[in-house]
Amino acid sequence: MQKSNQNTNIILAEIITIGDEILYGQVIDTNSAFMGAELGKIGIKIKQITSVSDDATHIKKSLDDARTRADVILITGGLGPTKDDLTKTTLASYFGVGLKLDEQSLADVTEIFRRHGREVTEINRQQAFLPENCQAVRNVLGTAPGMWFEVDNKIMVSMPGVPFEMKRMMTDTVLPRLQQYFGLPKINHKVIMTIGIGESFLAEKIADWEDNLPKNIKLAYLPNLGSVRLRLTGFDTGIDDLEAQMQAEVDKLSKIIPEYIFAYGEVSLPEAIGNLLKKHYLTISTAESCTGGNIAHKLTTISGSSAYFKGSIVAYSNAVKVEQLGVSETTLETFGAVSEETVSEMAQNIRQLMKTDIGLATSGIAGPTGGTSDKPVGTIWIAYADAHQTVAKKLNFNRTRELNIEYTTMFALNLVRQSLPEAFRNG
Amino acid sequence: MQKSNQNTNIILAEIITIGDEILYGQVIDTNSAFMGAELGKIGIKIKQITSVSDDATHIKKSLDDARTRADVILITGGLGPTKDDLTKTTLASYFGVGLKLDEQSLADVTEIFRRHGREVTEINRQQAFLPENCQAVRNVLGTAPGMWFEVDNKIMVSMPGVPFEMKRMMTDTVLPRLQQYFGLPKINHKVIMTIGIGESFLAEKIADWEDNLPKNIKLAYLPNLGSVRLRLTGFDTGIDDLEAQMQAEVDKLSKIIPEYIFAYGEVSLPEAIGNLLKKHYLTISTAESCTGGNIAHKLTTISGSSAYFKGSIVAYSNAVKVEQLGVSETTLETFGAVSEETVSEMAQNIRQLMKTDIGLATSGIAGPTGGTSDKPVGTIWIAYADAHQTVAKKLNFNRTRELNIEYTTMFALNLVRQSLPEAFRNG
C-alpha cells in the first residue's frame, strides 16, 4: 500500500468501466488493475473503481458522482461499433455536444482495414466521429479512438475496453499527458524481483531493513506465481538525490537476500534468464512433458530469444519420450515417467539433440486426474543439464492444473539460474 | 446488453469490494466476477460494482448510494483480524448498533484453531463478535464469519475477501437465501462461440436475425483474441418454454453462420478442438516455429488432452527444423523458413514423426524484429496435414509479439476445424 505524501497536492482518480460483461462476470476486470497500478506509479491515488452497465442514465450519474470526488476519471468500454456500445453517444449527450469527424481517426481506421486488404465498413467509419469537445486519443491497434476531455480543470478520458488497445493508449498518450497536465511531483520507483521465497518468509528476512527505510520511501510486496516483486516508491521531499538515496537502499537489500533476487526493474523471469544466457553466449533447449510447451512458450515471448533458445520437444506421450527424446525404455519401465531418472535423461538428451549448452526438462502430474497414492497430482520433477552436471529437483504443488503448469514453468526457469556455475549466475 | 424486463419485478444487486489492493491493481478483482455471474444465474441483475478503500466514511457513502439503487448489496473484504480491517466496525457504526458474541462463530473459529493444534488467539476470538442487528453467515473455511442484514426489505451481506471462503459462503448460504427471500423469476443464458470473423462483420451478417429476436431475448457480443462469444439472455415473461424459445433462436443462428460456430456453451477453442479429436479418435502433434510451443501449451491446459495430443517439436532454429523435423535444406534455402513449402513440410513431417493423424505447423515472424520488405513482421504461415491432404494458409498480423503469437495459435487451431473432412467437422 502506498500512503499519500502530506506535503504535496494529491491528485485523485476514479476508474469507470462500462459494460454488462464485467457486471455479469463474463469478463474479469483486469483493465482497472492495470490502470490503478499505472496511475499509482505516477503518483495519482485511486479513490474508487466503478463498473456500470451500458445504460446512459447510469453512466451519466456515475460521471457526476466521480466528478465530486476525483480530478481524473478514466472510462473504459462501450466503444465498439455495435448498437449496444453507448459510451460515445452518452458522453456527447452528457456534455451537450454533437459528433464531428476526426480525420486522423478516420485515417487510422482506414489503414487498419487497408492492411487486411479491405475497404472500411460504414459502421467502422462511424467510429471516427467523436464528441466536438474532445481531443482524440490515437488507437493504433484498433478501430475505436479514445477521447480526452478537459472540463473544469478535471480530466476525463474514454478508452476502449480491449485490454491491449487500452494499455497502449495509456502508455503512449494518457499517462504522459496526465503527468504534464497536473505537473505531478517527482516519484521514483525501484523494483526488485525475487523468486524462491514466500511473501511472509521474505517479510521476516527483510524486516529490519524495511523498518529502517527513510520516511519518504515506501515498500510494497507484490506476489505472483512464486515470485515476489518488491517495489520501492520514493517521494521527492526536496532531498538532494532521490535516485541515489533509493539506490543505497536497494544495495543494502541485495546484500541481505542475494540468492532470491533474479532481476532489478520490471523484468520477468523468462526475460532475466534470457539476458543471462545471452550475456554468456549460452544456448538452451527444453524437453517438456507436464508443462506441455509452456517453458518454450514463455522463453519465446521474449523478442530476440532465437539468440539462445533453439527449440523444444514436447514429449507428452511415452512413445515420444522414447522415439524423439531417446529416453531409455528401461528407465521409463523401472522408474516411471515422473521420476528423477526419466527427467534427468530428458534434460541430458535434449541438450545433445539440439546441440545446446543447457537442457531443461519437466515431467509430472499436472492434474486433476492421473495421480496415484505414490505420486499424487502435483508431483513434478524438473531437471537441468549442462556439459558438466545434471541437477534434478522434486516439486509438490496442490493447485489447479493451470497453476501447477505455471508454477512448474517458473521453478524450472529458476533452476537454470540456481544451477549455472557461480561465475554465470548473476548476469 | 441486457435490458431490464418491464413486466417482472427485477431484483437489483450491487457489489462493493473494500481494500486498497484492488484499487492499486495489486490484486485483480475476480471475486466480483464470480458474484456477478452467480447472481446473474439466479436472475438478479447487477447494477453496479464499486471498489473503495479501507476508509469508514467512503464505505458508508457507498452503502448509502448503493441502497438508493439496489435491493441486494454484497460486500467483500476488510474482515481480517488486523487494525486495517474496518468493515465490521464500520457496519456496526453505520447501523448504530454494538457488537455481540455469536456462539456458533466462536465455535467455528475455535474449531479451525483446534484443527491446527492451537488455542484460539484473542484477536481471532474477537472475530466472533458481530453487529447486533445481523445474522451470522457461517464460514467453515476461515476465521471471519459473514454478516446478513435485512434493512427496509433490502439485503446486505458482508463476506471475507478471500476468494475460496467467499465462494463457499455464496454457494452454501447467500445464494439459496436470496432465492428464497425474493421468490426469484427465471433467467436463461445461451452462449454461441464463433471464430474467424470480426465483431463488426459478424454483426452485419446476423443483423436481421438480431433485429427479429423476441423482445424478452437480448444479445451480447463478447470478442476475445479472434473469437467472438455471442451470449443470449432470455427473460421469462410467462411464456410456455423459455428454453425452447431460446433454442429455436440458436438453431436459426446456426443456419446463418455455420462455418464460424465452433461450440455451443462456454467452451474454449482448444477445448472444442480437443472434444472434436477425442470424439473421432483422432490424434494430433504440432511443429511450431513462431508460436514457440504455445499451441502445445494451449492444447495441454485441457485435462485429458493426452488422449489426443502426443507431442510437439518447437523448431525455433533452422538447424532444428532440418535435424529434428527433417525439413529439406533445399526447401529452406529456396523458399525460406517462412513459406508455404517449409510450413507444409513441417506439418507433414511432424505427423509422421509422432505417428499422429494430424500435424499442425506454424512458421512466421512474430516481431518486433526479424521482418524484411518481402516478409514484414506479422507474416505467418500455418499448415494442417493429415493422411490425405495438406492445407497451408498465410496470415498477416500487425500486433504486439505476444498477440501475434496468440492470434496465430487461435488461427492454427481453427485451421484444424476448417480442414477436417466434412464428416468430422461439427463435433
- How many domains of chain A, as an integer? 3
CATH class of the largest domain in chain A: Alpha Beta
Mean pLDDT of chain A: 92
Distance between the first and last residues' Cα of chain A: 31 Å
As a percent range, the share of strand residues of chain A is 15-25%
Structural class of chain A: alpha/beta
Output the strand order for the largest sheet of chain A. 2-1-3-8-7-6
Number of strands of chain A: 17
Shape of chain A: globular
Which pair of protein chains has the largest interface, and what are the residue counts? A-B, 87 and 88 residues
- Architecture (CATH level 2) name of the largest domain in chain A: 3-Layer(aba) Sandwich
Residue stretches of chain A low in confidence (pLDDT < 50, at least 5 long) are 1-7
Q: Can you offer a commentary on this structure?
A:
Two copies of one chain form a homodimer. With 427 residues, the first copy, chain A, is of the alpha/beta class. Chain A folds into three domains: 172 residues, 3-Layer(aba) Sandwich (Molybdenum Cofactor Biosythetic Enzyme, Chain A), CATH 3.40.980.10; 78 residues, Alpha-Beta Plaits (2-Layer Sandwich); 157 residues, Maf protein. Helix content of chain A is 40%, strand content 25%. Chain A contains 17 helices and 17 strands. In chain A, the strands form four sheets. Chain A has a six-stranded mixed β-sheet with strand order 2-1-3-8-7-6, sandwiched between helices. A five-stranded mixed β-sheet of chain A has the order 14-13-15-16-17, sandwiched between helices. In chain A, helix 12 links the parallel strand 13 and strand 14. In chain A, helix 3 packs across helix 4. The longest helix of chain A is centred in the middle third of the chain and has 20 residues. Chain A is globular. The N terminus of chain A is likely disordered. Chains A and B meet through helix 1, helix 2, strand 2, helix 3 and helix 12 of A and helix 1, helix 2, strand 2, helix 3 and helix 8 of B. Strand 14 of chain A pairs antiparallel with strand 14 of chain B, so a sheet runs across the interface. Chains A, B: Belongs to the CinA family. Chains A, B: This is CinA-like protein.
